[in-house]
Input
Amino acid sequence: MRPRVVVAGASGFIGRYLLDAFRAEGADVTTVGRTGDAVWGDTRRITELVDGADLVVNLAGKSVDCRYGARNRAEILRSRVETTRELRDAIRAARRPPRVWCNASTATIYRHAEDRPQTESDGEIGTGFSVSVARAWEAAFFDGDLPGTRRVALRIAIVLGDGSALVPLIRLARLGLGGPHLDGPWFATRRRRAAGTFHEDRHTHGRQRFSWVHIADVLGAIRFVRDHPEIDGVVNVCAPHPTDDRTMMRTLREIVGRRFGLPLPRWMLELGSIAIRTETELVLKSRWVVPARLEGAGYRFVHPELRGALASAVAEHRQRGRQESRNPTSSSARPV
Output
């Protein structure tokens, strides 16, 4: 009998990758989203999909690659918490609840760390807007009893792959702007401090830690968790060898064939982030996270080292570029 998998929030980079992979292995895959086999708000139909499923994976949530104004902050929170609650209600109503429910979370939940790595058992939760979203997200996920379903919150680090946040960094590196991201002083408004969206200067000089994971290991971790019934609770989904921003950008330059990369100081990052509608926290916060539970349970990473992971992602990006140049009417966006 074919395994049944439900993927919620499947229209993004990670979701599309999971759909392709699960379908390739012969699973019966259905989706929940703004479009798909069920749509948000139709809890009865969602219940029908999750009833009897072997695995449910929820990735729903507005992208954090935006400016953290009041409207975007509200939508970032709502799109995670409400969809998670609706899935929880659907699973509770199912006659045959799914065996495993993996819900996305984020490694950003941990504090800015330069002194030691953060594990699931001794990691310290941080402060600020992004952390408050992560805490609310996980609280909604673990709320209430679901005796028939094992729940795992995936605290995912920055994902490397074609289509991820790596793509704009590849472009910057090719333009000669692939130097380290340098923290520094910047003015803070009272409103941004109150909202928890202002990044405090920590003078990291490009040595802020960079925890990452290749997209193949996001899939691998989900499969591993699915097949290991002793794993529940929170799991750090990140490679075992985090690096720092300076090393990551230098390695990326070498892979794309650029010897020089202009360093990007805080003032330039702030002005650029306003122009492209994003936030500097994404590159200035020190994320030092390690996968203690995955390694302890015996998971073997497809891409444990940064150079191999970056080379794989860049090669996939180049391949897609060649395909699109041969067929310019094609689109990388696929229906789900």
Q: What stands out?
A: Confidence is low (pLDDT under 50) at residues 331-336.
